[in-house]
Amino acid sequence: MPSEYVERHAWGVELRSIRANRPKRAQTGARAQTFGAALEQAEQLWRASETVGTIASPLLLFYGLTQAGRAICAAGTPGQAWRSAESHGLAFQFTRPASGANLDLAAVVVKPHGDGLIQYVARVLDSEVLSGPATLSALLGSLDAKLLFSESQVPDPKPLEVHQMWITPAPAATYATKSLFLAPAPDRFAANTELVPAGPHNLEHTRIIPPPGEEIAEWLEAYPTLRGLGVPTQVIGPEPAGGRFGRDDWIIKLVWDAGAPMADVKQSDWTLEHLDEPYSYDWNGTHGVVLPAVAGNTQAHDLVIAWWLVLYCLSMLARYYPKEWTEMLDVDRSPLAVPIEHFISVAYSTVPALIAFRLRLLRATQEDRV
């Protein structure tokens, strides 16, 4: 093993370290043995995936993730039901493209099938799996990752970045308002403009007319975490992000209930309640993402489950449809080749980080209960 491996490899220090500082349920007995063996196999499969090209890597990545899933079950499932199922719990459907046509990601479909490993893992993570068929294009759109797929390949809805509207004067302040910054706002929200004539204090300029609250509520229907907020009472923007929050598109400010203060609630705590995946817990800068629900689900997938479903689809394509899979990766012919290559490179680092975070949460939760 190269000396720099522990520091630089995607699997990283944290997932190796957690083997000796594991959640309490996985500290002894058969659970402990399964936890350690499953993470070791997951790591070795992940390492092996980086030694092959995109043609074969989804197979190794998917099975590496399933082994990590067995470790999650050993660490998180209460009672005697922790031994995870041997089936996938999924079924695959693919409609081959016509001769000479490019593969359509919407023609790749995954369905729930029985109670398999993914359902066991989802119960630990308090996540839905699938209530019906889901296309690969919709699943890719639900991932919190900056991917290279075009809008025609992976249409909206996609994750939204959500930032706290800071109003409190100090971290100890215990009131909040229902207000958020969201990005990226759809381009259509910026299309309705009016010309403001020059006046004593301004030059002539074009102003964006904010969309009505009902249109905003319709937009947010795809995001269960925000859907319950209803129709906003105030819409400010959209306006160009201008590099704020690291974005180059449109941001929009929304206020509900006319900004009436809620007593005994911290602004950061209220914001956290409306995030699916937090990035920051800072009292004056809480932010993260909200995720769209797919396939008729009532809630968004936990991101581990979302990545699992996508990698399952790609592994099935690579394994059972090698001709179509190879053609899709032909950079001289296929517009999907580079986005898929980029997706695999993102998976290498993103998925291990998600696994580590979920295992840390399990460890912290179980320590709190002691």
Structure in words:
The structure is a single chain. The chain has helices at residues 5-8, 12-17, 29-49, 57-76, 117-124, 136-141, 213-219, 224-227, 267-273, 303-320, 322-328, 337-368, and strands at 90-94, 108-112, 134-135, 160-164, 175-176, 179-183, 193-196, 205-208, 234-240, 250-255, 262-263, 277-280, 287-290. It is an alpha+beta fold and 370 residues long. It folds into two domains: 5-156 and 298-368, no CATH class; 160-290, no CATH class. Strand 12 (277-280) and strand 13 (287-290) form a beta hairpin. The two termini are 38 Å apart.
Cα-atom radius of gyration: 23 Å
For the biggest β-sheet, the strand order reads: 9-10-6-4-13-12
Low-confidence stretches: 1-7
Query: Helix/strand-derived class?
Result: alpha+beta
Instruction: Estimate what percentage of residues fall within beta strands.
Output: 5-15%
